[in-house]
Design brief:
Elements: E1 2-6, H1 12-22, E2 26-31, E3 45-47, E4 63-68, H2 74-84, E5 88-94, H3 130-145, E6 149-154, E7 156-158, H4 166-176, E8 178-182, E9 189-190, E10 192-194, H5 195-207, E11 212-216, E12 223-224, H6 225-236, E13 240-244, H7 269-274, H8 281-294, H9 306-315
Parallel strand pairs: 1-2, 1-4, 2-3, 4-5, 5-6, 6-11, 7-10, 8-13
Antiparallel strand pairs: 9-12
Length: 324
């Protein structure tokens, strides 16, 4: 198959391209050519800019499917669809669990969970607008392509080449061992999806020409945040003592900490039936640890600094927040 990937050189897009190539597909990349420009040197690369609306490189060409990894606002998606028209067989859009309403959610929620109202009057990405903008993008893809549209909603993605630091923080912290400050209840459920599993699902959906909406969440076995940290330590050959501390004073949006537990208990049944694999958490942790060490363990943007963690361990009340 001839595939077009809109944004294929950073983390999720990179994993999708690698899986597509392993599966014997022909891949064309579209982007600004600034992120990892030396990656995939043998692939055709079309230069354009979604922010400025430059899609001229796409005109007059056709593909069996397009995989949109880099669409965040309706204008991005609308202009891409205008440029492509009917010259693509399927449009697969990578969305997010941020599209869902956050109240009244029960464990095991599926793809029919009510979404947040769409937003179209801003392109500023924030905690308040990110999900509603993705809702608008989903609606536009479905309206344009109908049964030729596929929506994939990943949970928190982990794996090598992750630029978000979320899972990497815990892998690196557990590798140091010792007392680990956790500004949450260790019993909190947590869902992460290996980037390579997400990529495999995306390519399989394209291969099967399958429409619909799919959760991409993992791991296969229910996992708590405490168990995840202990798994990372076991992979690194260390021992940890998880110490619940007060969230007061902790950095906002602490890695993988979610007070609303049902958001970390979504159903992956539909995606599993469609071919979503399940890389063991130990494998994901080991691969991230090796990748992080190979790149020299640069400073992370999320979580405690060592000094902040020591302060939390010595001065904050060692009591977890109440269970939701």
């Amino acid at each position: 198959m001839h595939l077009l990937v809109l944004g294929g050189t950073s983390f999720v897009g990179r994993a999708v391209v690698e899986d597509a190539l392993r599966s014997g597909n022909e891949v064309t990349l579209f982007g600004r050519g600034r992120t990892n420009p030396d990656l995939f040197p043998d692939l055709p690369r079309l230069i354009g800019d979604r922010d400025t609306g430059d899609y001229s490189a796409l005109r007059g060409r056709s593909w069996d499917a397009v995989i949109d990894v880099s669409g965040y606002v309706p204008r991005h998606v609308g202009q891409a669809m205008d440029a492509l028209g009917d010259r693509v067989g399927r449009y697969l859009f990578i969305s997010s669990h941020a599209v869902y309403e956050r109240t009244g959610l029960a464990p095991g929620s599926d793809e029919n969970t009510p979404r947040r109202p769409p937003v179209r009057d801003t392109e500023e990405l924030s905690e308040a607008t990110y999900g509603p903008l993705k809702v608008a993008c989903e609606d536009d893809v479905t309206a344009r392509y109908g049964t030729r549209a596929t929506i994939v909603r990943p949970g928190k993605v982990a794996g090598p080449h992750d630029s978000m630091d979320t899972f990497t923080y815990w892998v690196r912290r557990a590798a140091r061992g010792g007392r680990v400050a956790l500004p949450a209840d260790p019993a909190q459920p947590v869902q992460i999806i290996d980037s390579r599993d997400l990529a495999r699902l995306v390519v399989q959906l394209i291969t099967d020409d399958r429409p619909g909406v799919f959760h991409a969440v993992g791991p296969a076995e229910p996992t708590t945040l405490g168990e995840l940290i202990e798994t990372c330590a076991r992979v690194a050959g260390t021992q940890v003592d998880i110490v619940p501390v007060s969230p007061d004073g902790a950095p906002r949006m602490f890695p993988l900490v979610r007070p609303n537990w049902p958001t970390q208990q979504r159903s992956a049944a539909r995606a599993r039936q469609a071919g979503l694999p399940s890389t063991p958490l130990e494998v994901t942790a080991a691969d991230v640890l090796a990748w992080d060490r190979a790149r020299g363990e640069p400073p992370l943007r999320l979580g405690y600094t060592p000094e902040e963690e020591q302060t939390a361990l010595t001065t904050q009340a060692a009591a977890p927040p109440p269970t939701p």
